[in-house]
Amino acid sequence: FTLRDPLTAKDQGVKFADVAGLQEAKQEVMELVSYLRDQKRYRALGAKIPKGVLMLGPPGCGKTLLAKAIATEASVPFLSMAGTEFVEMIGGLGAARVRDLFKEARRRAPCIIYIDEIDAIGRKRSGGSGGGAAGGGSGEEEQTLNQLLVEMDGMGSSEGVMVLASTNRPDILDRALQRPGRFDRHITIDSPTLQDRKEIFEVYLKKIKLKGDVGKFAGHFAKLTPGMTGADIANVVNEAAIHAATALKPIVDRTDFEAALERVVAGQEKKTNMLS
Ligand code: ATP
Predict the structure, then answer these.
(1) Residue ranges of the AAA+ ATPase domain (predicted)?
(2) Which long-range contacts does 31-37 make (Cβ < 8 Å, 24+ apart)?
(3) Distance 49 CA to ligand 1 centre (A)
(4) FRET label pair with 17: which of 87, 95, 133, 169, CA 20 to 30 Å apart?
C-alpha cells in the first residue's frame, strides 16, 4: 500500500477546492474532517466516531479525489489500497496485507485508510452471513474480506482510524460489510450535473493558457458534455492543450477544444464497441 506523509498531504495534497461540484457530498465529508480533527471534543460528549464510510458512485467522478481531500483538510496520513490488488494473491497474503495495513494505520492514527473498489474483495459470500450466492469470491478473497471485518470489529471508535471505501457496485457487496460499526455511513457521488461539469471545467481551464474567458468556455463546454465524468473532463482539457502545443500555438483556443472533444468522444465510442 502507499503511504502519504502528513506533511506532504498538507503541503501538496488535494484540497476541497480541487474537488469541483459535488456540493452535497462535500457537505457530508466536512463532518468527517471535523471528527478527525477534533476527536477529543466528540469523545468528551460520548459520541462515537464512525469507523467506516462507503463512497458510492460511478468511476471517474471523484471518489478517490474526495477521500484524499478529506485527509489533507484534516491533516492526517492517507493509507490506501485497491481491492483489485488482492485478486491475484494466494496463500493468505491478502489477509496478511490487511493486517499490516491496519497495524500501520493504528500506529499513525489519527489517519485514513482508503480502499478503492472494495467490491473486488467484498462480494457477497457464497454461504453464511452475507446471504445469497451472488457472485461469491475465491477462498483468498473471502479470507481477505474476513480479515477486514475482523480488523474493523476489533478497532475501537476512539482509535482515530477512519476507513473509507469506494464502490460502483453496491448491489454485489456482502451485507456483512454494512452492519453497524462497519461501513454504516454512505456518501453518494453521482455523475456530474451541468453545473458540476461547469465547475470541473473551470478547475482545469485555470491550469492551462486559454484564449478567452474561463467562465464562458466552461459554461459552453459543460453543455456539450452530458454524461461525461470529472475524469473525462480533465482529459478533454489536457487533450486540448496537447492539440494546441502540437500545432505550435502559443495559446489554447476553441478549435483545440473541438478537436479534443471529438477525440475523447471517439475514444469512448471505441471502448464501448470493443466491450459490446
Ligand atoms: P474510480 O472508481 O475509477 O477510482 P473515482 O470516482 O475514484 O473513480 P477519481 O480517481 O477521484 O475517480 O477521479 C479521477 C480523476 O478525474 C481525478 O484525479 C481528477 O483529475 C478528475 N476528477 C473527477 N472528478 C472530479 C471533480 N469532481 N473535480 C475535479 N476533478 C475531478
Answers:
(1) 49-193
(2) 32/70, 32/74, 32/162, 33/70, 33/73, 33/74, 35/162, 36/70, 36/74, 36/76, 36/110, 36/112, 36/160, 36/162, 37/74, 37/75
(3) 26
(4) 169
